[in-house]
Amino acid sequence: MALNLQLNQKMSQSLVMTPRLQQAIKLLQLNHFEMVAHVEEALLENPTLEVVPDSSGADGLELENRRQKDQATEAQDQHDQNNGESSDNLDWDKFVREMADSPRGASMAGGTIYDDLPPIETNLTYGDSLAEHMMWQVQMLKMSAEEERAARVIVHNLDHRGWLTVGLDEVVEEADVDLQAAEDALEIVQGLDPVGCGARSLSECLVLQARHHHPEDPNFEVICTEHLHDLERRNYQAIGRALEIDLEDVHEYHRMIQDLEPYPGRGFSSDEPRYITPDVTVIKHDGEWHVLVNDEGLPELRVGNFYKKVMKKASKADKDYLLDKLRGAEFLIKSIHKRRRTIRRVMESIVRFQHGFFERGPQALKPLVLQDVADDVGVHMSTVSRVTTNKYVHTPHGILELKFFFSSSVKQDGGGADVAAEAIKTQIKALIAVENGKKPLSDQKLANLLLEQAGVKVARRTVAKYREALGILPSSQRKQLF
């Protein structure tokens, strides 16, 4: 069989991820905080960009003004698209002149009375960490040099719970002390505040607190050491037989143990709290639901007036540089507008699909998939996925992630309408919230109540799966015996 080399021409279409397209996709994925940071970075990197004065964000505008502004922006973008305008074919001399003649083109002169104040970061205070709190106590105590070295090693090896995460052999090696000094240092650390720190297990943590709060009661320590598994299973009879005490006393010990702190170090956790700023707000006005994109902290951008003069006198190299920056600035401005419009359209589509949720709450949530919204808006499903990832919406029923509205469906027998899984979870949580603590609802009883009260037929194992996903214990562990 002979092999022949041939040269053929063929036309085909392919999608090329240009740098500009990659930038547009990146902007679509950013949440509000990330978008504000991206704009600030762009202002630093691109000298042709500047902030329009008095435009620190549109969060304070009234609903009608916001709606008119969104419509005007969308109409302008549609006009540019219909005319086939692109950032590579713009007349930049004309563009700069028009920006300069804009009524908002005048620059703001002067400063404010707050310009000379120190930044807010210099006025912030921070609480002590667990290690700092305990080292302050170590320094106040009298101990040998070996014990102090070992105590320092122990304190700096406590995790966020306050538990010791290394063995004494490692303490001996790192502090260069003998085992006796390490054991003495551990005893000292375990006696510091908060009580229970330095423990190496849950049982030891509870025992340390039991010795501190109830030193006269040996049964308390025995229960924390040998019968935690019985408490977990509510096997009070076994504890009563082992300690030869009444069942009422076992119940009392259980109440006392519940007052102890299994993680004594979490009050000093160094984890920063995570604050959520909604990217979108849905409000009801004149009987209709309206979607507002959060523009707080996102100023309007424009091309600086200074470059109108520079373009005329610049050399070829400088002009090429400026043209590249001007194209990047114009593309960023248009991408921000397109991002805002896409987010708003996707959220408006979600509101249409999940109208019952906004009117009545989570129990009225319907099954919804990304493709439904993509078809409604007229974009690709991946676009909807990017828009709804890591973004939050402020609704009358709380601040929720956009992904919350996309829920799988549970099929109903007899041709009934499918029910969203999130709606079933909400109903399960509501039923358990009002149950009798002495007679908690079993998974089968929950399934029966869902069918009786809501007309939703689900299997017992499905109820168990949703209950576990909600972090709710089974009925045997929810039962209150006292």
Written account of the structure:
The chain folds into three domains: 22-100 and 277-387, no CATH class; 130-268, no CATH class; 409-478, Homeodomain-like (Arc Repressor Mutant, subunit A, Orthogonal Bundle), CATH 1.10.10.60. The strands form three sheets. It has a four-stranded mixed sheet with strand order 3-2-5-6. A two-stranded antiparallel ribbon has the order 1-4. The protein has 22 helices and eight strands. By secondary structure, it is an alpha+beta fold. The longest helix is centred in the last third of the chain and has 38 residues, at 316-353.
Can you describe this structure in just a few lines?
By secondary structure, the chain is α+β, with helices and mostly antiparallel strands. It has helices at about 20-30, 30-45, 65-80, 90-100, 130-140, 145-155, 170-175, 180-190, 200-215, 220-225, 230, 235-245, 245-260, 305-315, 315-355, 355-360, 370-375, 380-390, 420-435, 445-455, 460-470, 475-480, and strands spanning about 50, 280-285, 290-295, 300-305, 390-395, 400, 410, 420.
Multimerization status: single chain
User: What does the radius of gyration come to?
Assistant: 32 Å
Shape: extended
Order of helices and strands: HHEHHHHHHHHHHHEEEHHHHHEEEEHHHH
Model regions low in confidence, pLDDT < 50 over at least 5 residues: 103-115, 120-125
- Percentage of residues in helical conformation: 40-55%
**Number of domain modules:** 3
Secondary-structure-derived class: alpha+beta
Q: Span between N and C termini?
A: 89 Å
Instruction: Kindly report the spatial arrangement of strands forming the biggest sheet.
Output: 3-2-5-6
What does the average pLDDT come to?
Answer: 81
How much strand? 5-15%
Count of beta strands: 8
Biggest sheet overview: 4 strands, mixed
